[in-house]
Write a structure and sequence with these properties.
2 copies of one chain form a homodimer. By secondary structure, chain A is of the alpha+beta class. Chain A contains 8 helices and 10 strands. The first copy, chain A, has a 6-stranded antiparallel β-sheet. A 3-stranded antiparallel β-sheet of chain A has the order 1-3-2. In chain A, strand 8 and strand 9 form a beta hairpin. Chain A binds a DNA duplex through helix 3.
Amino acid sequence: MITRSPSLTDQVKAHLKERIVAGDFEEGRIPSETELAADLGVSRTTIRDALSRLEQEGSIYRKQGAGTFVNVPGLQIKSRLEEIWSYEEVMEDHGYTPSVQVLGIEREAAIEPFAGDLGIEPGGEVLVMEKLFLEDALPVVLTYNRIPAAYLQKDVDPDRSDQPLYAFLEAHCDRYLAYYLSEIVPVVLDAYQADQLGVAPNTPAICFEEIGFDQENTPVVRSTSYFRDDLLRFRLIRRKAGA
Amino acid sequence: MITRSPSLTDQVKAHLKERIVAGDFEEGRIPSETELAADLGVSRTTIRDALSRLEQEGSIYRKQGAGTFVNVPGLQIKSRLEEIWSYEEVMEDHGYTPSVQVLGIEREAAIEPFAGDLGIEPGGEVLVMEKLFLEDALPVVLTYNRIPAAYLQKDVDPDRSDQPLYAFLEAHCDRYLAYYLSEIVPVVLDAYQADQLGVAPNTPAICFEEIGFDQENTPVVRSTSYFRDDLLRFRLIRRKAGA
DNA sequence: AAGTGGTCTAGACCACTAT
DNA sequence: TAGTGGTCTAGACCACTTC
């Protein structure tokens, strides 16, 4: 998973994003697609692909016949729900120094619904990792990851268990996380969870119940995560379907 | 907002989606892009645009060099967070008969943070609508919508207040909702909210705090919504950023 | 009327997967 | 090596906004 130099589209997107955040565009107006294509020496299609991605993530908006503009409210979103890949990166975006504590690694027999979600028999062995993510020493996320033990191709190196989950899966299972299917569940934190996150018991919190799939569409990990709402709030942009 | 016949891409997307859910494709393998283009008599670009959308919404996945395939787990998602536009539609997707109760319409002075979110002065008049959405007589969503009174171009017709919010805004304010900027907040329901939703007080719930913008990027509505988690659970697909 | 984004075409070449 | 999806080009026409 080392492959490919950035595509032209990616480079154009990054270039435009830089200029947008730097405030290069007067009154939020971005040059026309034809003009950008000529300036950057690429085809209009490439420009359009890059602009579409920027629009998708809320950085710009387009008005047919009028032009393309910087989207100020959209620019302020940091933790965009659909784009979360590792909590380390989320916290860096917040401007904090992230760190991880591995609270426990053990093997246990899978119970439902975990077994079913992972496509293994109930009672099958899973590796459970409990981790706490902190930003500037403040605990923010408490997660439990369950991986079928059968996927492990080597012994778990405790010194390497603090790496991001996708890296752990690549190193130990030769599996590459392609996407998560996530459910958002409201909970109140129990005494243990609240203690770990440093808040009062019964504090309301968001919980993610999710299944991570690899490129072959096989479930490889079942995660449960609890978030401290006062430190990490999720935002997203909702659009009319099909737009 | 009546415009345009479905684009070719939209038609291709709808056509393929039909065949996918009908199970037309053996072993989940979808014909190659070249083949689809020839069959449907459109360019490969059009096919690719349609496939990209289907991939985006999780219905299919593509593997370079291998082919395009039906994504079974992704197909099962009904309430995809990013695509919610009206709760009526969400409930129809669930297979229930939706209905709406308007619990109250009144004018009040805007307080923070509502005034700031709507870009008006604190104390400015807003119209507050309290609504309850039900599926098969079971309450599922409790929402409060705040609209600056200055935007109202005609008196509010109580008989028409049960229409979806975007329709209400078009009819009364000539404003067209373009997107929502949403925050996901964990709460426990207070006595009144729990009573309206038919659950025990202090039940944990998801709350959406959101600002609706029109095409000119002006905030037009500030919404707060509470959901019954046992009846409506949100799901989403999370991918690596930039993929 | 001029300029913008929206859609679509036809074709090229590359990277990757299968066999 | 043949076939697939990934990227990119150059150009056409349309719908819409703006002046």
